[in-house]
Structures are given as structure tokens and as C-alpha cells.
Design a protein that fits this description.
The structure is a homodimer.
Chain A (H helix, E strand, L loop, with lengths): L11 H23 L7 H10 L6 H8 L3 H13 L3 E5 L7 E5 L1 H25 L1 H16 L14
Antiparallel strand pairs in A: 1-2
Chain A binds a DNA duplex (30 and 30 nucleotides) through helix 4.
GO molecular function (chains A, B): DNA-binding transcription factor activity
Pfam family, one (chains A, B): MarR_2
Protein name (chains A, B): MarR family transcriptional regulator
DNA sequence: GTAAGATGGTCAACGTGGTTGACGAAATAG
DNA sequence: CTATTTCGTCAACCACGTTGACCATCTTAC
């Protein structure tokens, strides 16, 4: 990739944030594949987490992820196909199809959390724990100052 | 989006990095659209920058971006269609088609740099200049410690 | 000088993660 | 009972990536 021009300091920030994110995600999925979850793709962890322990519907999942209900439905299809989600009829509303995390999905989610914890520990080994915390605090401060939209609408400009 | 579980601290880091990156990119393109560049998509800035002032070929562009030459060629097609890049024959090698940034492309690139500078200044207003610098330094330290792959191979796990 | 190999660009088929529009079935409001 | 809303799905499409195949051209070796 083209390196940032030192005369344009603004370019470095997005590049570094992206590189950090990508590295964490790549490392996560390398490790997940080693632990028996090679089918889990980068976005799937976010989707599993958005489904949550209580289950949800495709429409509501779309709202949580900031994507259309159709896109959410397709993503659920894929995760059902690889065994991480399941669909069950809602006895109280025949239109709805509840989406639930399967035991395999829960295992993937649990392992993701553990791996992220270990990766964060690697950052702490390199930077020192207080600098990692400071980094998170700074980003959280930007989020609180209303600069960030944490609801992740579509990953890129879509 | 699902909020991070406080008992799993590792989840926050990728989420915050992604949110910061996405916010910068979204703000950039909102402002670029206002300044006469609505066609510029999130990845296009990276591509324009990778082409550089001297121009390049689709194959070499693909190597720089870590994608296939076919994918690079398609991206060039789109940027040519909207007037940000142009293709010219290489007189010294009839196989090669040089890709060059047009004046309009250079304008978009220049404005991108200016907007990023302004966005960084907004961060400095919120966090204080030294904390923004510290944040960049920390991320750069992770990159130097060989955790990061700055060459951006494909944006997601692709 | 020509045959053989490496390189640049393109075409085709496909996968994934999105979009919008239309529409049937079921629930709800009046 | 009818009108409206909501849930899910189908179909068509777009952006961005992949592999494999292929032709044209440049380069190397003999």
C-alpha cells in the first residue's frame, strides 16, 4: 500500500486504525480456523453477537446491524448452512421465524471472545497495559463526543 | 450493534478501531461529495493514492494493493469511467497500458488529504493534540512490532 | 533468427455482502 | 369484516473480490 505522506498527517490515522482492526480480525480468524471454526468469516462474529442469547428475527437483526432485512436474511441463510444459526417457527406469530445461535455458534462466539482477550494481552505486552487502556479510552472518548456511530451501518460506504 | 460485554475486554478494541476508521471514512466521503466528488467511493482514495503521481500498470497496482491484477483492472475501469484515472499506451511496451491519475483525480486526492487533516484536527480538539499523537504512536508501535500488515491485502478476510 | 518462456491485459464464471422493489401470508386496528 | 402494517422471501441488480484461460507481446536461450 502507498505509504502515508508525512506532509499530510491526516492520512495516517485512518490507515493505522484500519491496519489495527484488520490485523486483529485476521489473527482472530486464523486462530478460529485452527480451533475448528474455519467457516467463520470476518462478519459472522458480529452477526452471531447481534443475534444474542435470546435469538431474534431477520428483520430485527437487520436493524441491529444497520442493513436491510433482505441482507440480514441472506447472511442468516449462510450461517444456518454452516451450522452456526438455526431458524425455528414462532408459535405466537406465524409470520416470524426466530433465529437462534446453535451450540456450535455459541462455541465459536465463546472462542472469539477468548481469542480477542489473548490478542489484547499481546498488545498490552508490546505497548504496556496502560497504553492499551489509554488507546481504548481515547477511542471511546471520540465515540462519546458523538463523532462515532457505533451501530456499524454496513461496514463501508455501501 | 451489539454492545461489548464488559467481562470480555478484548471485544472492545476491534470494535473501537473499526468505528474510528469507519467514522473517518464516512465523514471524508460526506465532505468529498459536498466538494464535488460524490462518485468517489471509500476504496477509491486508496486506489488513487496507490497509482501515484508517476502512474503505474494494473498488474503493479494489484501488487501494491494486495489484490489480483483482474480485480485491479476492474477497479481501474470504474475510476476511468468516472474520470479519475486514464489509460495510455506505453510506447516502449505494447503489452502495457499505463494508468495515470487525471487532473480530476488529483483534485480528489488533494481534497481527501485536506479533509483528513481537518478531521484529525477535530480529534485533536476533542482529545487534545498529544493524545492523538500518542494514539498514532501506539498504533505505529504495534505496526513496528510486526503485528500489523500495512500492505492492506483485500480489506477483509476475502 | 527463431523457439520457448515470462509478463501484461482481458474475458468469463463465480462467490459474498450489500441494495431496491414487489408480493404473499399473517397479525392488528378500525 | 375490511384496511393496514409487518415478516419473510423472491428477483434483479451492483461493488468488489476470486480463479482459470487465453492472446499478444516482450525477453531469453540456443
Amino acid at each position: 500500500m502507498a505509504t502515508a505522506d508525512p506532509a499530510r498527517p491526516g492520512f495516517a490515522l485512518p490507515l493505522l486504525l484500519l491496519a489495527g482492526f484488520r490485523t486483529l480480525i485476521d489473527d482472530l480468524h486464523t486462530e478460529l480456523a485452527r480451533e475448528g471454526h474455519p467457516e467463520l468469516r470476518p462478519l459472522h462474529g458480529f452477526v452471531l453477537q447481534a443475534v444474542g442469547a435470546d435469538g431474534t428475527t431477520a428483520t430485527e437483526l437487520g436493524q441491529r446491524l444497520g442493513i436491510s432485512k433482505q441482507a440480514a436474511g441472506k447472511t442468516v441463510d449462510r450461517l444456518v448452512a454452516v451450522g452456526y444459526l438455526e431458524r425455528v417457527d414462532d408459535p405466537s406469530d406465524a409470520r416470524r421465524r426466530l433465529v437462534r445461535v446453535t451450540p456450535r455458534g455459541a462455541d465459536g462466539l465463546r472462542r472469539s471472545a477468548e481469542i480477542f482477550d489473548r490478542l489484547r494481552a499481546q498488545w498490552a505486552d508490546t505497548l504496556g497495559p496502560q497504553r492499551v487502556t489509554a488507546l481504548e479510552d481515547d477511542l471511546r472518548a471520540m465515540a462519546s463526543a458523538n463523532w462515532f456511530r457505533l451501530d456499524v451501518p454496513g461496514w463501508f460506504g455501501g
